[in-house]
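Example S7 (structure tokens).
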């Protein structure tokens, strides 16, 4: 209260009263205080103040929505091909070897190399396969940087900390050009990419083919060696069947949610995702892994989607009606065990989240990246726990003779 508003007797009263008397004085009545005039607020800054000179709010909103939606659908169609019904249609694989290791490529260490990127779930399949089969030293691996502004096509390029081992290329497009007759590759420059460094040839850029071929890659380690088998003959039919529905409902289902451009297409995809996750939950009710008591290719193909689900896909692709950590307890248990078996360092969730939220800008034009959830929030094992608890009984084995591999 300002002094000019005090009653004239109040200063004298304050001087005569002891300090302790203040607690017994009743509060001043508002009626004794002259009301202050309401403050006049200045106009908010920023913006074009369109409503001040466009006569119709309906016209403004309708025009803005039409323009934004048209631009958005155009950008999404460039990013993710669409059906007439607004459903995402994943491009067909461009190259493949029939999912068999090429007969003319001897299985020797150091000759073959794979390019992968951390955010990409299809690349993650390959990293998991190398880790589970212990091929880290036999097949080289380069982690690509994800930067569409540096890459000449697509988003993959090289950092100084992880240079290209083939020709010292600046980005993955240059690698594709190098291994293409004529030196001018036309098409999508996708990862993962498996190449023969010696002959300068592409072996495959289709993740399903690469992981199947790497399961056949058995470098001799003596007279014979027992190696991890992710596609045992007795489980082949069950693995193929599981792969088919997990791909359609879950692996590709989350992308169908995120890239849908019409409501009906989105709703169908969202139903598929959770139908697939429920089916996984049911499969794990009676077995340790998707196809039995041993890790198989089916688990390898599902894990990259599950580890990205709560932290990326659920919020970003709008399919988070249910989440793994709260609604699918068997899948959560399975995810933790798979992460312990694969070991630490294969996947960086924070980096992947940044990649999705900043690079797929038509879905997030503001570029704001959410905080979390973190691996600890998701209940993932720590790095030390993963190293200490790899359970070798979780793997099927096969015997490889030297003469069969030479």
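Recovered sequence:
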């Amino acid at each position: 209260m300002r002094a000019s508003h005090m009653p004239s007797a109040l200063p004298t009263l304050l001087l005569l009263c002891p300090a302790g008397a203040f607690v017994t004085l009743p509060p001043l009545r508002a009626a004794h205080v002259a009301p202050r005039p309401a403050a006049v607020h200045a106009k908010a800054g920023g913006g074009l103040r369109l409503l001040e000179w466009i006569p119709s709010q309906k016209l403004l909103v309708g025009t803005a929505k039409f323009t934004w939606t048209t631009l958005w659908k155009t950008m999404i169609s460039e990013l993710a091909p669409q059906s007439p019904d607004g459903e995402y249609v994943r491009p067909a694989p461009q190259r493949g070897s029939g999912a068999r290791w090429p007969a003319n490529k001897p299985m020797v260490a150091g000759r073959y190399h794979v390019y992968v990127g951390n955010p990409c779930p299809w690349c993650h399949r390959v990293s998991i396969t190398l880790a589970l089969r212990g091929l880290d030293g036999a097949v080289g691996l380069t982690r690509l940087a994800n930067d569409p502004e540096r890459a000449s096509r697509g988003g993959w390029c090289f950092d100084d900390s992880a240079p290209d081992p083939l020709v010292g290329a600046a980005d993955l497009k240059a690698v594709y050009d190098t291994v293409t007759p004529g030196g001018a590759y036309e098409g999508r420059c996708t990862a993962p990419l498996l190449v023969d460094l010696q002959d300068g040839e592409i072996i495959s850029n289709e993740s399903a083919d690469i992981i199947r071929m790497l399961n056949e890659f058995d470098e001799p380690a003596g007279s014979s060696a027992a190696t991890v088998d992710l596609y045992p003959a007795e489980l082949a039919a069950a693995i193929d069947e599981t792969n088919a529905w997990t791909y359609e409902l879950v692996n590709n289902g989350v992308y169908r949610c995120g890239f849908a451009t019409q409501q009906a297409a989105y709703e169908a995809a969202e139903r598929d995702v959770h139908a697939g996750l429920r089916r996984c939950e049911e499969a794990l009710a009676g077995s340790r892994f998707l196809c039995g008591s041993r890790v198989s290719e089916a688990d390898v193909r599902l894990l990259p989607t599950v580890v990205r689900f709560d932290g990326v896909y659920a919020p970003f692709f709008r399919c988070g009606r249910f989440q793994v950590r709260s609604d699918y307890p068997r899948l959560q248990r399975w995810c933790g065990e798979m992460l312990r078996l694969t070991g630490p360092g294969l996947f960086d969730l924070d980096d992947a989240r940044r990649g999705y939220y900043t690079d797929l800008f038509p879905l997030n034009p503001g570029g704001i990246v959410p905080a979390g959830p973190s691996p600890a929030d998701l209940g993932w094992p720590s790095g030390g726990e993963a190293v200490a608890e790899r359970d070798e009984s979780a793997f099927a084995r096969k015997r490889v003779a030297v003469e069969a591999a030479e």
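Notes on this example. The two ends are 95 Å apart (CA to CA).
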